Structures are given as structure tokens and as C-alpha cells.
Amino acid sequence: MGAKRVLIVDDSPTIRQLIRTLLANDRRLRVVGEAGDPYEAREKIKDLAPDVITLDVEMPRMNGLSFLEKLMRLRPMPVVMVSTETQKGSAAALEALSLGAIDCIGKPASGALDEAFQNLGDLLVAAADARLREPGLRKPVDPATGFRWNGRYVLIGSSTGGVDALETILSEFPENCPPTLITQHMPETFLESFVRRLAPKIAPRFELATDNAPLLQGKVYIAPGGAYHLGVSGGDTPKCKLLSDEKRNGHRPSVDVLFDSARPIAQRSVACLLTGMGRDGAEGMLALRQAGATCIAQDQATSVVFGMPRAALEIGAAERAVPLGRIAQNILQLTGRTSAVSV
């Protein structure tokens, strides 16, 4: 297969040059053009037929979100959003994901751009081959009823495509859901925006995890990212633990760290690995399963990127692949009994 064709869309010549330079030695990719605004990008897309584009959120004449909405409606294609890691920029990035962008990457307000974009090549390759979804077609789902928790905890890991997958799953969770911990690969401010965006839409209480927070029924805890991984303490009353370790598999927060930390409560746990590139979470899930946890992974047909679930299935860490639309039902079946659950 030939190199994936990339179009860079950003009003900043500095950012365009930085991205071009970072991708120059990646034989999997070829930058075929640049555009300084959406109008120029529209013409370049027609002329150059890129396989994937990077798209800035804030641009003159038309902002990136407006352009993305038109693009996904008229000529759907893989898009990776580039957004400032400010509150406003992070909220816009989450909106872009709901409009159909494959993923978003942070553009720090000052400095550290090389570090911020270090995984951009891998992300663009994965995005170019990702399964495009039609935005805005998720049907409203009523949360399960009659759920009675059996004492088992839920651990979920996700990456590229995970925001939409998590929303799909959590929208089916009842108000008294099993205690649930989630590690989603995202910059810290994007995770904060994700919680603000999703919390009003789901029945359980959804919040950023804090150190030593007890794992309570009816609550969903998401890794805050930044300087910390999310882990869980053992014992009769497990708690969230924020761990300031180095990156694992290139990520902080890392799914492997979450799964590894839960081995003391493996026999009381259900682990799920969702869409995402790479293999973060696979080894940790294998250790969990060997210690007695029940482990599942999202299937290929419903994954935006099948990397992480594939890795878990290939090494026997996940015992089965489950379509996204049935994952919530499976989790609730395994952690309790409810009349709304069927497998």
C-alpha cells in the first residue's frame, strides 16, 4: 500500500510547517498540500483527494467546526482536529468528535508543540484507515431498569473513537450502576470538557476521579489525565488512586496502569477494552483475566480503530468480542440483574 495522503488545514504557517516537518520522515504518510482556511481547503480536497486531513478549530472566514459539519455531510472523510488545550478549545474539540472527527490532538497554549504532536503520525495513519461513522444517528436509549448490583466493579479503557463509544455505553447505565472507572486517552483539559459535556446526559453521576475517592454505586469515575494515571486500591472498600508515574505505552493516563492496579480485586471486576489504536490495556487485561476478572472487548465491526481490542483478543486477554450496541447490556448482566438486560 502507498503512503497515506495528508492535507494540513491551519491558519498558522508555523503550525503547518511544524506538522509538515514532523511528518516528513514518516514513510507511511505524504503531505500533499496545505490550506490556510476552509475555503482554500475545500478546493485542495477537490484537487488533491487526500486520505486524511488535519483541521484547526479556530480559523478565519469559517471556523473548523462549521467546515467539519459541511465536510461530513457532503464529502465524509477522516479528519483529525487540532485544537488549543484551553477550556474553549477543548469544548470545541469534543463537539468536533460528535460531528464525525476521528480524533483530536491538543495544541498547547504555549510551547511543547513537538511533544504534543509526537504521536500525530500514528494517529493520522490510524485515522486514514478508520471506520467512519455517520454523526448524529445515535438513537435515544432509556437506561436499564430493575438493576441490582452484585458487588462487581467495572473497568473500561478506550482511545480513538472512545468518546462516542463511552457515550453509547453510559447512556444505558442506570442511576444505580456498578462503580465504574474509565481511562480514556485524551489531554487533561479535553477530559474535563468531556465530563462537563456528558454528565448532564447520563443517569449515573459522572466525574473526574480524585485521589482516595471511594468507589460507590451509581458513580462513574474518569481518569483526570495530565500528570496522573488512574488506579484502584484493593481491599474490602476499593478507592480511586491517582498515580504520578511515567507514561505507559506512550500514554498518561494509561489503560494498562488502571487494569494492572485492579488485580487485587480481579475476581470482583469486569474489564472492557474499547476502540483505539495501539495496544494499551491488552497486557493489563491479560493479567486481570488470569487473576479472575471477566474481560470483554469491542468488536471490529463497531470499532473506529480496532487496535486495542484486537491486541487484547489476540493474546487471550479478552474472552470475547462484543458489538458496541450490546456492551452496556453485557456489563450490566455481569454486574447484576435487571429486567432490561439480555445477552
TrEMBL record:
The active site is at residues 159, 185, 280. Its EC number is 3.1.1.61, 3.5.1.44. Keywords: Chemotaxis, Cytoplasm, Hydrolase, Phosphoprotein. GO terms for biological process: chemotaxis. Residues 5-122 form the Response regulatory domain. It comes from the Bacteria. It is found in: Cytoplasm. InterPro entries: CheB-like, CheB_C, CheY-like_superfamily, Sig_transdc_resp-reg_Me-estase, Sig_transdc_resp-reg_receiver. Gene3D superfamilies: 3.40.50.2300, Methylesterase CheB, C-terminal domain. Phosphorylated by CheA. Phosphorylation of the N-terminal regulatory domain activates the methylesterase activity. GO terms for molecular function: phosphorelay response regulator activity; protein-glutamate methylesterase activity; protein-glutamine glutaminase activity. Involved in chemotaxis. Part of a chemotaxis signal transduction system that modulates chemotaxis in response to various stimuli. Catalyzes the demethylation of specific methylglutamate residues introduced into the chemoreceptors (methyl-accepting chemotaxis proteins or MCP) by CheR. Also mediates the irreversible deamidation of specific glutamine residues to glutamic acid. PANTHER family: PROTEIN-GLUTAMATE METHYLESTERASE/PROTEIN-GLUTAMINE GLUTAMINASE (PTHR42872), PROTEIN-GLUTAMATE METHYLESTERASE_PROTEIN-GLUTAMINE GLUTAMINASE (PTHR42872:SF6). Belongs to the CheB family. Contains a C-terminal catalytic domain, and an N-terminal region which modulates catalytic activity. HAMAP family: CheB_chemtxs. This is Protein-glutamate methylesterase/protein-glutamine glutaminase. It comes from Rhodobacter xanthinilyticus. The lineage of its organism: Bacteria, Pseudomonadati, Pseudomonadota, Alphaproteobacteria, Rhodobacterales. The gene is cheB.
